[in-house]
Task: inverse folding
């Protein structure tokens, strides 16, 4: 049994949210450069060039890539041989969010559903905890902006519609979202499971680096077909028309009920922010 | 890419008439910020017959809720938010002289109709290019609704603020035309 103080988690959460909001991932930057090569629209090229320049300025001046620094989504993979000491894990995570958003000059975007009163410190964090083998703790900070989250959906299809029905739903979702989620987007797709699990695996699929290959050839075929068809929609960077509407499609699939065929589509803007650290 | 045009605020009909979808503009002058909560309050003032906190005639509203400024900065990162949420409010502001809106994402038919009728343009700032956009904002001052934090109305002094014309006064729509041009069956 390894003892870890929750104070360490606070510090890691703080640092990861600042890092994720300021420093664009190398995988995303590489995807922008690749998109610039295939984009045919002059305005589309201009937008991609702006995004690359924006990432440079944000990093150099240590300011957020986007003013919407998101809701604070945290994934924790907790080794079962870890004994957490020194306090409450949830409070430790929220403390890290509070510190990160305050000290990092990040926008606080969390509010009451109806009064719209801001909670003031971007808590509560949205925490997903998973217990895994080992004595390490992996912390992933994935700030999620409102514009792209608003375009995400879960639906229950009839099993008879099959894979084509799932693909049609994903395509329709991206098409209807148009320019709102800040394309070029990354599309996370969760197929199967229950209502909440479909959404969760769609979100987790977004954490995979852009350009990484899914180990399952059945899924690879779905991802490649969807990416091709999405990029034929013509929406393009910022929706102004072009070849690159999505940088990647990441799919995860788990078994579902004999009566069901679920699909969740979690749309992610081009900033695709997430950073992780293992303690 | 169409030519780059430089415009100054407040906007006048002669300038707006010369703008077409796809034009890249660099705006210099004063623009005002406002998003969901501020729009709600502006409309309440109009409905109550009260005066707006700034003269809206010829002005541009930018849909943005900036991140906090670091010491020494006029403003933090300041990219556009989704404009569609302001659709319910925009026609009323257009009727009172608003001449331009800056944001991202599609507008409703009602807003587009009002734009044609009153000669108003909808301009796109690049969503997620918030650090780059902030460089063109030289001064920011909260002029109303400080309690709304990032949603307060700010008076911004901008220099060469970069936007692209999405909807012009002739009914053109860059989203529709751009998508149709690059769509493959």
Result:
């Amino acid at each position: 049994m390894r003892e870890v103080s929750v104070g360490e988690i606070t510090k890691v959460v703080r640092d990861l949210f600042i890092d994720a909001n300021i420093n664009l991932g190398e995988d995303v930057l590489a995807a922008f450069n690749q998109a610039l090569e295939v984009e045919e629209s002059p305005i589309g090229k201009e937008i991609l060039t702006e995004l690359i320049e924006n990432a440079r300025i944000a990093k150099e001046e240590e300011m957020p890539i986007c003013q919407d620094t998101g809701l604070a989504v945290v994934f924790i993979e907790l080794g079962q041989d870890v004994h957490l000491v020194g306090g409450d894990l949830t409070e430790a995570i929220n403390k890290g969010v509070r510190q990160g958003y305050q000290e990092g000059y990040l926008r606080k975007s969390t509010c009451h559903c109806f009064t719209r009163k801001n909670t003031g410190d971007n808590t509560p964090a949205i925490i997903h905890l998973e217990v895994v083998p080992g004595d390490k703790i992996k912390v992933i900070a994935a700030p999620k902006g409102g514009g792209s989250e608003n375009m995400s959906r879960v639906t229950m299809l009839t099993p008879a519609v099959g894979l084509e029905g799932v693909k049609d739903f994903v395509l329709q979702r991206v098409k209807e979202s148009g320019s709102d989620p800040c394309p070029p987007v990354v599309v996370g797709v969760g197929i199967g499971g229950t209502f909440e699990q479909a959404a969760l695996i769609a979100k987790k699929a977004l954490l995979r680096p852009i350009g990484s290959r899914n180990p399952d050839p059945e899924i690879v075929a779905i991802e490649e077909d969807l990416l091709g068809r999405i990029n034929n929609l013509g929406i393009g960077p910022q929706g102004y028309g072009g070849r690159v509407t999505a940088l990647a499609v990441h799919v995860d699939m788990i078994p579902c009920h004999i009566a069901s065929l679920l699909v969740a589509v979690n749309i992610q803007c081009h900033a695709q922010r997430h950073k992780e650290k293992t303690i | 890419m169409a030519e780059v045009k430089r415009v100054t605020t407040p906007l006048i009909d002669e300038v707006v008439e010369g703008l077409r979808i796809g034009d890249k503009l660099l705006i210099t002058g004063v623009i005002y910020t406002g998003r969901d909560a501020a729009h709600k309050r502006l409309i309440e003032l109009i409905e109550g017959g009260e005066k707006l906190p700034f003269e809206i005639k010829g002005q541009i509203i930018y849909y943005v809720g900036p991140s906090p400024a670091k010491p020494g900065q006029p403003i933090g990162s300041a990219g556009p938010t989704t404009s569609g949420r302001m659709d319910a409010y925009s026609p009323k502001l257009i009727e009172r002289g608003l001449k331009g809106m800056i944001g991202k994402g599609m507008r409703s038919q009602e807003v587009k109709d009002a734009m044609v009728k009153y000669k108003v343009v909808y301009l796109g700032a690049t969503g997620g290019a918030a650090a780059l956009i902030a460089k063109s904002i030289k001064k920011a001052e909260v002029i109303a609704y400080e309690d709304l934090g990032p949603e307060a109305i700010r008076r911004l002094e901008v220099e060469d603020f970069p936007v692209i014309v999405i909807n012009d006064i002739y009914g053109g729509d860059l989203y529709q035309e751009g998508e149709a041009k690059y769509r493959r069956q």
